[in-house]
Amino acid sequence: MTGVSMIHVAYKGSPQSALDLLAGRLDLIFANGTAALPNIRSGKMRLIAISAPKRDPTLPDTPTIAETVPGFEMLPWWGLFAPAGTLREVVARLNSESVRILALPDIKAGYAHLGMTAVSNTPEQFNAYLQEEITRWAKVVKASGVRAD
User: I want to staple 14 with a disulfide (CB 3.0 to 4.6 A). Which of 31, 47, 104, 149 is the partner?
Assistant: First the structure.
């Protein structure tokens, strides 16, 4: 979106990239909250911006990348999946129980402590979101010229 050229260094996870940032082997990283927040809170890392579309209430002084690069959004997400042939009733029950559990105050607080917000939706809404993500990231991959080795 900006035309900035960076060298991507592949890591198996955020903790390893965070270690290399702290050791001075990297200039910056995109990291999830669980890997970065302890180092940010201790003052070992500086949070420059978040990739969510709006500011996080737990980090109100931290700008979003979208404030500088309009339309930028990159959110990590996790989903609950079942095999394609799973009965509709089973999917509905898994969904309703997941929604109930994610709404519990202690669960919400636990996620917030890790810099995450649990979002609940229907299987249909999640499928629509997945399709949007596939379309968006396919454009990014094509524009970057990345190829699988």
Answer: 31
Q: Are residues 55 and 3 in the same domain?
A: yes
Residue whose C-alpha is closest to residue 37's, from 105, 112, 93, 100: 112
∠ CA 120-85-80, rounded to 5°: 25
Do 122 and 149 fall into the same domain? yes
Domain-terminating residue out of 74, 95, 113: 74
Cβ distance 11 to 25 under 8 Å? Answer: no
Could you tell me if 115 and 32 are in contact, meaning their C-beta atoms sit under 8 angstroms apart?
Answer: yes
pTM (2 d.p.): 0.73
Tokens read off for 85: 């042939």
Residue 97, amino acid: E
Task: Let me know whether 140 and 84 are in one domain.
Answer: yes
